Amino acid sequence: MTTDWNAILADCQEKGDVRYRRESNQTHFIIHDRDDLLALCKSLREIGAYLVTVVANDERELVNGSYKRYHYFSHPTADQFLILEWQSDRADDFPSIQKQFPAVAAFVNKSDAAINESSQMMIVGPNHAGIIESGQFRFQIMGEQINQVQFRFGWKKRNIEKLFTTNFTLLDGWQLAEKVVGDSAFAHSLAYCRAVESLAGVDVPETAVYLRGLFLELERLYNHIRNYKALANDVAAHQISTELSVLWQYLMELNERLSGHRLLFGVNRPGGVTLPDAVKNISHDSVNRALSEISVGRVNSLPAFLDQFLKFGDKLLNSASYQERASIGILTKANAVRLGARGVTARASNWKTKEDGDAVLIRFDFRLNHPYGVYKTDAALRDKILTTEPELPEQRLRSHEMRGDVYARTHLRLLEIRTSVAIIQSLLTHLETMMFDTPLHAPVERALQRTPNFEFALGYAEGWRGDVVYWLMKDRFGQIYRCQVRDPSRFNWAALKAAVDRHQLPPIYIKQYPKTQNPAIIIQPDFPLVNQSFNLSYAGYVL
Amino acid sequence: MTTQQKLHTRDLGIQPTNQSLFYLHFDCGSCNGCELELASLTSPLYDVERFGLDLVVTPYHADVIALTGVCTPELVEPMQRTLEAMPDPKRIITIGDCAHDGGIFKGTDCVAKRPLAIKDAIAAHVPGCPPPPHVIITALLKLESK
Q1: Which of A41, A158, A320, B146 has the highest Cβ tally under 10 A?
Q2: Domain locations in chain B?
């Protein structure tokens, strides 16, 4: 696959001007011709590249400035980013790449085509029944069956990207970054800090790298367990749900003991991490002791915690009731690739089809595709992630189209929890030998002053929903000129729509069943279960 | 002692009461952090139902609205209509720094000017970003005994 990628790079060199590269894995070209850009996008699509993010920027105040658009592409098998830049004097003069990469539609805050008003509509929201964020779902229904769903999220707009430039500096922007999405605060602040570090060109101390890896996995762990608990609650498996919510609370308190905050706020800084003074070291011993204190002796170590979880997690997965109810909300592999789905959503739809043959399955995971931090230094960790292949019960494998449904996503979360605990164990072994009295963060301020103005950098991290990407540009005063935030939910809401809409059902279901008896058609009460299995962020979409 | 009984020993030193308070959650533009902590309340570690606190899903049944988030201009009207649907006395408890004065967003466009009806209804505030569950419970209980 690298030969294809290199062929495209050579093609870019021919058609555009190469620009200075900031990181070794990012190649930047300015493309001047509209047809060239579209042709490049087409060949990128053909080799299986995906869209990472698109940044539109007003750079008229720069020397020879204009409106600019940066398209970031990558390939699942190559640790490479390709940046295609487009310049124009007019704000509306941009070639649309939606034909080649339909995922780009998620960046255009345009409402969907209006649903036929003569059909029956059911509008839910913006306030929901329960403890959920505000947003509106508009269902077009026939009886109880859902034909189509639309999402409206404009209610929560907080002007995050503007606030970065007006109210924050490069050094304290992490404060806002962790309030973009509260439940993946660590992934967001990590992506922001990595962007600043890339701008400054500083290296993070080794201990801080390992601590960041640890907290990122802790965040993944508590969120997956929280999601599991909510799924159990949605199918009225109350015993499982209650037991898991206790385990979730243990993890929140463990977070507080290790980092000083239940949701891991305020740990990341550009250049490293800060820990509360009370935390002198983090080791197997201290984690096990903390868990044992928190749970009053019920769970004495991380492996015991995992056993406790698996007891209830397997119970849910193996119950006939759940297997039957969770066979809905199918996101086909074709749709997942087309819409650029991210994280667990994409991985659960990544089953093997006949066309794949013996080809190695591609994992859409930034920890593997673009290794950073601990995942770069430690190949054993990457192997641990690679073994998280979903293995489904045989009767489900036979009808392989079943993959990509609620069950597949639930199962994948269980496997990821297992992997996360293994990764945390291995990180703790490393941390035991490390010094905590040395400074945990490298000085960034000086290095930032040396960075030329109007430089930009990319920061990314694999959070529990998927990859979080920050794009930062420095202005002439050394502060933020533009900060673009790309949460995985940006793409995944379109994937949820594809899993719910009736006309996007997998072809085999349409062939096999008559229209009215199709088991994959979602009825109104099923929607919360499908929604919960994706577990997307509203705040990360509206910004 | 069984495991479940042990869990209950971690309570807040508050005696169960014979009063009750039904709370409704309304998100006015929060980051999902306060929602997480509100959802923690029903976990057996805290088990707020023994204090008479219960989450309801419609304003018709609510004694108090737990408001989270910065109160964005778009959500002022839905908030007002939710408040109108609520029986008297209308009470709001603001949860988290954002809901108090905008917190980190203070003074920016996304923090709307609140109508008098909402301002008057605010009965208590829980500070924190986000406030831990036991702080929320203590505040709700204070409101319950008023």
Answers
A1: A158
A2: 20-144
Model pLDDT, residue A401: 45
Contact of A158 with B69, CB cutoff 8 Å: no
Half-sphere exposure of A513 (CA within 13 A, CB side): 12
User: Does B44 contact A246 at a Cβ distance shorter than 8 Å?
Assistant: yes
Mean pLDDT of A52-72: 87
A422: which residues sit within 8 A by CB, 6+ positions away? Answer: A384
So what's the architecture of A169-490 in CATH? Orthogonal Bundle (1.10)
Residue A212 CA to residue A162 CA, distance in Å, equals: 27
Q: How far apart are CA A378 and CA A376, in angstroms?
A: 6
Q: What is the pLDDT of residue A354?
A: 56
User: Does the CA dihedral A414-A420-A425-A428 come out positive or negative?
Assistant: negative
What ranges do the domains of chain A cover?
Answer: 2-106, 169-490
Helices (H) and strands (E) in chain A, counts: 22, 13
Query: In the sheet that A467-474 helps form, which strands lie side by side, from edge to edge?
Result: A456-462, A467-474, A480-486
* CATH class for the region spanning A2-106: alpha beta
DSSP alpha helix (H) spans, A70-205: 160-167, 174-177, 185-200
How many Cα atoms within 13 Å fall on the side-chain side of residue A412?
24
Percent of residues in chain B assigned helix, strand, coil, to nearest 5: 40, 15, 40
For chain A, what percent of residues have pLDDT higher than 70? Answer: 90
Which of A159, A176, A242 lies closest to B44 in CB terms?
Answer: A242
Phi/psi for A390 (5° steps) reads -65, 130
Tell me whether residues A157 and B110 touch, CB distance under 8 A.
yes
Residue count of chain A:
543
The reported pLDDT for the residue numbered A397 is 45
- Do A202 and A402 meet the contact criterion of CB atoms below 8 Å apart? no
Best CA proximity match to A158, nearest among B63, B103, B39:
B103
Q: Is the CB of B78 less than 8 angstroms away from the CB of A126?
A: yes
Nearest residue, CB atoms, A182 vs list B36, B45, B78: B36
β-strands A120-124, A136-142 pairing: antiparallel
Nearest CA-CA partner of A400 in A351, A350, A357, A355:
A351
For residue B89, is the peptide bond before it cis, meaning its omega torsion is within 30 degrees of 0?
Answer: yes
CATH number given to B20-144? 3.40.50.12280
ipTM strictly over 0.90?
Answer: no
How far apart are alpha carbons A121 and A489 in whole angstroms? 25
Distance in angstroms (rounded) separating the CA atoms of residues A103 and A124: 26
